[in-house]
């Protein structure tokens, strides 16, 4: 696999992606403020910020799409071809 240009990585805040783990944490709305304070108080947490509703929806859609691709590659489901999608329009 090809290497990614370091300036491109730093553009996205990924100085050293090998040593960074991103974690999605679900916190009830009524505890969000406290949860964010706790995360931000931890010295090893580099960045903690809430996701907008639109970003959460996009994340869920991308996750579902990735799951469908994985199932397709395993032969468990059949995906529509580009032509079939165009024919629906």
Largest sheet: number of strands, sense, barrel closure:
none
- The helix-and-strand class reads mainly alpha
Strand content: under 5%
Indicate the overall shape: elongated
Distance between the termini: 36 Å
- Helix residue percentage: 40-55%
Mean pLDDT across all residues, rounded? 85
Discrete helix count: 4
SSE string: HHHH
Tally the beta strands: 0
Uncertain regions: pLDDT < 50 for 5+ in a row?
none
Rg over CA atoms: 19 Å
Descriptive notes:
With 89 residues, the chain is mainly α. It has four helices and no strands. It has helices at residues 6-11, 32-41, 53-73, 82-88. The longest helix is centred in the C-terminal third of the chain and has 21 residues, at 53-73.
What structural keywords apply?
4 helices; 89 residues; mainly alpha
SSE order and pairing:
Elements: H1 6-11, H2 32-41, H3 53-73, H4 82-88
Quick recap of the structure?
The protein is mostly helical and 89 residues long. It is built from four helices and no strands.
């Amino acid at each position: 696999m090809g290497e990614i240009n370091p300036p491109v990585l730093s553009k996205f805040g990924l100085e050293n992606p090998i040593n960074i783990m991103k974690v999605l944490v679900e916190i009830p709305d009524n505890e969000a403020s406290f949860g964010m304070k706790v995360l931000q108080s931890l010295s090893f947490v580099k960045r903690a910020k809430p996701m907008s509703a639109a970003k959460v929806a996009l994340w869920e859609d991308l996750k579902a799409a990735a799951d469908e691709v994985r199932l397709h590659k395993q032969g468990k489901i059949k995906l529509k071809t580009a032509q079939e999608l165009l024919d629906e329009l």
